[in-house]
Amino acid sequence: MRVAIEADGGSRGNPGPAGWGAVVRTHPTGEILLERYGSLGVTTNNVAEYTGLIEGLAAASQLKATEVDVRMDSKLVIEQMSGRWQIKHPGLRPLAARAAELVSGFERVSFEWIPRERNKAADALANRAMDEAQGKPVSTAPVEDVAPAAPSSWAPPDSLENATRIILVRHGETALTKQGRYSGRGDVPLSDEGQAQAMAAGGRVAGISRDVTAVLSSPLSRCVRTAELVAAEVGGVPVTVVDDLVECDFGEWEGLTFAEVQARWPAEMAAWLGSTSVAPPGGESFEAVATRTRSALATALKSYAGGVIVIVSHVSPIKLILRDALAASDSFLHRLFLDAAGVSTMDVWPDGNIAVRSVNETAHLR
User: Fold this and answer.
1) Pairing mode, if any, of strands 164-170 and 343-348?
2) Catalytic residue at 79?
3) Which residue range forms the structural domain that includes residue 277?
4) Where does the record locate the signal sequence feature (predicted)?
5) Dist CA 291 CA 320 (whole Å)
6) Please, how many CA atoms are within 13 Å of residue 193, restricted to the half-sphere of its CB?
7) pLDDT exceeding 70 applies to what percent of the chain?
């Protein structure tokens, strides 16, 4: 599949509050496949522009594109990525290296400089990111050539007509959960407390909706058992195992606490906390988890459109789903806490609009 990426970034102050935007379009029709944007705190225009490129390439990779045409109005980024200009600033070298790593995953990538007026869509997204980060009102007026990737208003519609409701449930407690240890692909069963929590979560799900269409679960037993107990509370809906909902593979960190990992792998831990593209030794990156989780969610939305879907999974997949739904930055992943058997709810409309209604409900556990 061939796609075109339009990317941009900006900084109000250089350095100053910064944001980036990226649009992935079909080639040659120009239909928008995906839009992304995000804020970066205080940094420079060039860092923001490189970030827009990186995020656009990552999005194209997730869409399984094989050929990519990159279009940006940043002469510096285009010339440096084309190999015609040297990368003299040390702060840009890691960003260029990350972009080059993503480029190597495609069969062909071209870089083209375009004037700013032809990059309005990505520019608008970057400015939206900066406005939101600074607490400024965000215009809902349509931007030429930009298809909305988020609701035109923050307020969710009063009607649920045509919406698909997604109820996210983290599995109940296990022995490793209670000890605060990384629990990835190890098949650790629910504890007695975890069983009770799962039943309580089922009661909460029933309180949200008794007309559940499907209950989907990670293949690991702690999720499958939680899903079975939840399903029993909503009329015995069959549990469907979805492999892509499995937890992140923490590799050599499996079964260890944060403090133990920090003491033994300080550099690797710092790199992992700093980038979703970095994996624990022998493990899986959050970027990889996000790719398969998005695929699982997209399939569920297509298969059960307009229904109520319960997804029983783990911390990482649920956080990544919520990050995308809230258009949050990657720092969200390390700031959100999800309790065992916590429940989160969101609605998704056919046009892509999303309303997150609750995050990590735990009142049913008290």
Assistant:
1) antiparallel
2) no
3) 164-365
4) none
5) 10
6) 9
7) 93
Question: What's the pLDDT at 352?
Answer: 77
What is the pLDDT, as a whole number, of residue 156? 44
The active-site residue, picked from 35, 55, 233, 247, is 247
pLDDT for 16: 83
pLDDT digits (tens, 9 = 90+) for 271-293: 998 889 999 999 999 999 999 99
What CATH number has the domain bearing residue 346?
3.40.50.1240
Q: Is 334 a catalytic residue?
A: no
Residue 144 confidence (pLDDT) above 70: no
Asked whether residue 259 falls in the same domain as residue 311, the answer is yes
Tokens of 274: 């700093």
CATH at residue 36: 3.30.420.10
Encode 88-107: b = buried (16+ Cβ within 10 Å), e = exposed: eeeebeebbebbeebbeebe
Number of structural domains found in the chain: 2
Distance between CA 228 and CA 239 in Å, rounded? Answer: 6
Is 259 part of any domain? yes
- Residue 236, pLDDT > 90, answer no
Spatial distance between the Cα atoms of 68 and 57, rounded to a whole number of angstroms: 8
Mean pLDDT confidence for 320-327: 91
Q: How far is 276 from 262, CA to CA, in rounded Å?
A: 17
Instruction: Tell me the C-alpha distance between 215 and 192, whole Å.
Output: 22
Nearest to 3 by CA among 66, 88, 58: 66
Other Cβ atoms less than 10 A from the Cβ of 155: the count is 8
CA 34 to centroid of chain Cα atoms:
13
**pLDDT confidence bin for 13, thresholds 50/70/90:** confident
Bridge partners of 216? 240, 311
Catalytic residue among 6, 35, 55, 171: 171
Rounded to an integer, the average pLDDT of 169-177 is 94
Residue 120 lies in a domain: yes
- The reply to whether omega before 28 is within 30° of 0 (cis) is yes
pTM assigned to the model = 0.60
Query: 345: burial class by Cβ within 10 Å (0-12, 13-18, 19+)?
Result: buried
Per-residue pLDDT, averaged over 155-169, amounts to 73
